[in-house]
């Protein structure tokens, strides 16, 4: 992982707050998530930045050096970003629509919806692994809209001028080699997966590995994660029989791979559409959301494991924390698991 501007902001936020707990609240993160991020930053820089004391965190001599450089650099970077964002808004065509997306099944549906609703728009898209980086681009005016995602207890922080619309919350499923004994089951217990080696995504901004680990810890164990990979490389590690992993419920099985629900639905992933309040998409947002939700339902129906889960499960509520998500969701009544649900953004 390379040092990024946001890492410098994290270091400054911790120093300004004087404690990890207060800094996590200011950054919209959990305290364990911020602690893990600080450890990665310290590993990148090669030294300990803060001493943990009963009264809070105090910069080390090494930390003072880093803070001094960071505080000298960040104002110039902030000025550059503000100036270039203003210049870009002046120069770009008023009908330009730039879309960002994490790895999720919504991008194609979103692009088709924009083409249908704004046929004259100059439409472009780009993908990124981290929803935080895309959210930064939205807030800075470098994107008009984005497909984002988060987990219980790791919700994306609000940003001025950006509207969030959580579209759907879906369970996280097990990703297995097709020939694995667990693939013969209709559902897989998380505890059984913990007997295996895991392949996990790169820990950078998305906080997925931290969320997985926090839920697994409720069983008294944590996954053994010798393999770190993203996208196609992670799939190939699982296909080769070297590891198991987890995936979005909408992941479509490919040869050599099996997707299975987890017993009790202990993990969840939330798909979020976000757009700038001043973007060309804001006036057509209700129709846009309808198009994307319809496309999501079609995608969900195409996955054998997810379609079976939907037939047997009522829509579960969005858990507030890993502790709550460890309990089996309340399944009274039947509801559409892919129905949209507006939330304040």
TrEMBL record:
UniProt keyword annotations, A-Z: DNA-binding, Transcription, Transcription regulation
Query: Please, which domain of life does this record's source organism belong to?
Result: Bacteria
Q: Which CDD domains match?
A: PBP2_LTTR_aromatics_like (cd08414)
Signal peptide range in chain numbering: none
Task: List every stretch annotated Disordered.
Answer: 311-345
Q: HTH lysR-type domain: from which residue to which, for each copy?
A: 1-60
Name the InterPro entries for this protein: LysR_HTH_N (IPR000847), LysR_subst-bd (IPR005119), WH-like_DNA-bd_sf (IPR036388), WH_DNA-bd_sf (IPR036390)
Family per similarity comment: Belongs to the LysR transcriptional regulatory family.
Query: What name has this protein been given in UniProt?
Result: LysR family transcriptional regulator
**Which lineage is the organism of this entry classified under, starting from the top rank?**
Bacteria, Bacillati, Actinomycetota, Actinomycetes, Kitasatosporales
């Amino acid at each position: 992982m390379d040092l990024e501007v946001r890492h410098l902001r994290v270091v400054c936020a911790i120093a300004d707050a004087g404690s990890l707990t207060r800094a996590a609240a200011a950054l919209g993160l959990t305290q364990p998530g911020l602690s893990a991020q600080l450890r990665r930053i310290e590993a990148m820089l090669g030294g300990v930045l803060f001493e943990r004391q009963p009264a809070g965190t105090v910069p080390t001599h090494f930390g003072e050096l880093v803070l001094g450089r960071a505080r000298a650099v960040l104002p110039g970077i902030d000025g550059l970003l503000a100036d270039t964002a203003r210049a870009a808004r002046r120069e770009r065509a008023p009908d330009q629509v730039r879309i960002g997306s994490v790895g999720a099944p919504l991008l194609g549906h979103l692009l088709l919806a924009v083409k249908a609703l704004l046929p004259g728009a100059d439409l472009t898209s780009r993908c990124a692994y981290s929803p935080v980086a895309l959210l930064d681009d939205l807030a800075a005016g470098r994107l008009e809209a984005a497909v984002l995602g988060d987990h219980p207890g790791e919700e994306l922080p609000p940003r001025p001028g950006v509207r969030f619309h959580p579209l759907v919350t879906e369970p996280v499923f097990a990703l297995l080699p097709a020939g694995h004994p667990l693939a013969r089951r209709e559902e897989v217990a998380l505890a059984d997966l913990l007997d295996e080696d895991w392949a996990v995504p790169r820990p950078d901004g998305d906080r997925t590995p931290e969320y997985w680990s926090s839920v697994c810890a409720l069983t008294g164990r944590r996954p053994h994660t010798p393999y770190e990979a993203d996208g196609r490389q992670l799939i190939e590690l699982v296909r080769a029989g070297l590891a198991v992993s987890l995936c979005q419920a909408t992941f479509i099985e490919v040869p050599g791979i099996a997707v299975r629900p987890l017993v009790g639905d202990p993990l969840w992933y939330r798909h979020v559409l976000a757009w700038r309040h001043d973007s060309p998409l804001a006036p057509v947002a209700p129709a846009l959301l309808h198009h994307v939700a319809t496309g999501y339902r079609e995608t969900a129906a195409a996955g054998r494991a997810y379609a079976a889960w939907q037939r047997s499960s009522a829509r579960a509520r969005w858990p507030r924390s890993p502790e709550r998500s460890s309990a089996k969701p309340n399944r009274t009544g039947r509801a559409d698991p892919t129905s949209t649900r507006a939330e304040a953004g």
